[in-house]
Amino acid sequence: MTTPLPTSRTEPDGSAVIRVLSYNIRSMRDDTEALARVIRACAPDLVLVQEAPRFFRWRKKLARLAAASGQVILSGGATASGPALLSSLRATVEHTEDVLLPLTPGLHRRGFATAVVRFGRARLGVLSCHLSLQKDERYEQGGMLLDRLAAPGTPYAIAGGDLNERPGGRTFKRLATELQDCWAVAPWGGEYTSTPAEPHQRIDALFATEGIEVLGCGVPLGLPGITEADLRAATDHLPVLAALRVPAV
After folding, report:
1. The pTM is what?
2. N or C, which end of the chain is more exposed by having fewer CB within 10 Å?
3. Please, are residues 244 and 214 in contact by the beta-carbon 8 Å criterion?
């Protein structure tokens, strides 16, 4: 069984330990009950969603998932072209914004779901992304991600999502040069996120700015409440879960 990650808490010095989940949910086209069970078992404070529902009754679908998994909606969905942010009631939300990225003719529209949140005296920016399948556009979007992460003016920030690229790719390397690649810093659980049936590549990741302490990060294999059957049934990606300590400001 996987060693448990630290639980969410506020430290005596005002810093906050938070659990962050990044998850491509394939527009909730699979087993949504299994999906909700996986999210709930991870006990996240923040959920960075990719491929949230974008079409007919998309808000209701996302709201049902949030309620079933013990979360509330912060931002995103169709208004961010897929990425979304959910949170537990522990978070105090200061600001949210959906960002649509420049459209390349013939390619899928991409966007960022962003927010600024507080956990006690810890304050941080948050961004969920799903980068392009086309390598040049993906590289440009990586630069936009770094620029956007610095935009809220918060001392600390996290980003996560489906990068559509392995760690050896130039966009992944660009992000990992400027940010902490949470899995590389403190590996925990499983590494590979695709596919659930035959995990063989890490194309989903969580990143954190300097100053955030990464306590552990990886695919929550063997976590109590999570079964292999649910992971396979929920969607076509495996989730990435991290425990982070964010300093007080």
Report:
1. 0.98
2. N
3. yes
